[in-house]
Give the backbone structure.
Amino acid sequence: MLWETYLLAQRAIRRNVLRSALTVLGIVIGVAAVITMVTLGSGATAQVTSDISKLGSNMLQARVGQGFHRGGGARGAATPFQIADAIAIEQQIHGLQAVAPVTNGSLQAIYGNANWSTTITGSTTDFLIVRDWSLADGRVFTEGEMRAGQAVCILGATVVRRLFGSEDPLGATIRLGKIAFRVIGVLNPKGQSSFGTDQDDFALIPLRTFQRRVAGNTQVGTIMVSAMDGVPTEQVQTDMERLLRERRNIAAGQEDDFFVRDMKEIIDTLTGTTRVLTALLGAVAAVSLLVGGIGIMNIMLVSVTERTREIGTRLAIGALERQVLLQFLVEAVVLACFGGVIGIALGLGAARGAAHFLDIPFIFNPGIVAAAFIFSAMVGVIFGYFPARQAARLDPIEALRYE
Amino acid sequence: MGALIQLEQVAKVYGKGQAAVNALDRIDLIIQRGEFVAVMGPSGSGKSTCMNILGCLDTPSRGVYRFGGVDVGALTRDQRALLRRNYLGFVFQGFNLLSRTSALENVELPLIYRGMPIRQRRERAREALAAVGLTGWEQHNPAELSGGQQQRVAIARAIVSDPDVLLADEPTGNLDSARSREIMDLITRFNQERGLTIIMVTHEADMAAYARRRIDFVDGRIAGAADAPSGARNK
């Protein structure tokens, strides 16, 4: 019976192809918009996630202050880390691959008449391990250089390009601020980070050198660690928190004045933003689906009026009320689903094109495709019901007489 | 029991109070199985109201309409639809075929509502079209058919479900006289060969002459031959 009704509905739809097409246009646009938005959104999320994983998924950072989840209120008041903190972590926490105390600053880099403002990172060679960074040429710091705080530096690819062009930088002497540094190594490029900053635009110098000659103190801004493969970062995180609380004499019950984050949290924070945006855009698109539904109702009502005599004839030759209701309902649902399918195809196509254009991965999300299809079918049922009931309740005598 | 159609003191009132109109004023009517009845009368005489009641599209305000012994007034809307589906066939002045739908599919329609399987349905529809002389026209849409052919498709649709009664509302009203005669011959043949009961509204005396009995409506009442149902058959 349902199949027969489907055939009847299909026949009715085919009797007026142009109008049927216009009727479903709203649904088509709505579904296409939802599919495009959500597909691009999941692509962007995946992009951010993979970018951050490139930083090293087993990386954790400890900073002074209160994590950006809670608003960084007390940061200024808290005591900064010292090198001793990093050493304590290295000695007392198990399962660590590398521990790098890191401090950043900004300085002018000068070579010959080339001049480039860049970030200066003071750290140890462990920094390269934590960040999973490899040398393109030259060597890393020696123990002696690090202990003595000598003026040697390893340059990021961008700085090399800016200062040296095609010249070989190894062994050259450049000035960072007022101090002369010898270039001992060059890093492989990493490209842009997901924050949009150039990760290769920096120069790495020994931490001691940074503290004594640039900052003039013994502070450490961040302690970056990386866990060994197979060691859960949650474990490392709690161990570090306990150790640092102890070292900073924070009494039980008192809040931390530092925070330890693993990359998962950073990923969550960033993808959270994309997800909220996706949801918002998706919601806007869903509203257009609703509008599409109203379009269907509108046309179905017109159709019922226009086909009054037809309905009268059907009722006269023995169609039951619910058969007429079902016919018009199925007609609306078939229309809506038809629109849904076209919309899904269009949306996937548009998402594919846009993903290519925006250089983010195209991720086919079967869940949202199914949801869009079911939703459009539901739109058909909901907005088709009223006109269908209108049709079914017609008085056959009036309907037959209708001109 | 006995009579196929039996109206007892049937009245139909439209509106209320002062504005009430007696469209039908307590009429009695008996139609036997196999009769061919022409219903005549000026507009507003109550013949259309009577046809609506006979066709189970409407129910009497007062009085009893028995179809095959069943009190139609006591039936629900859906039960009346089932009664129409199984025992009545309708032919309209304006043909009322579905546009952009082939003749075959139009004829099939009542069988679809009966839930008949497609193969059997096609077969029956073809037979019905053959019976009205439209073999070879099955795939044509109404727009591609002449008025006479369209009315024949409509007749095929009315008889495809093998009804007891054919209710025709001015079936020749939109046709020229040659076409009208063809349609009347066809209806007469169904009456004679199949024993199909025909009730036909018409304005034209020529067409009414095909019937073996004539009922004239005047002011909501049946004039003249009101109670000679059986006598009228041997004309």
Q: What stands out?
A: The interface with chain A takes residues 52, 55, 57-58, 77-78, 81-82, 84-86, 88-90, 92, 94, 96, 98-101, 105, 109-110, 112-115, 157-158, 161 of chain B (CB under 8 Å).
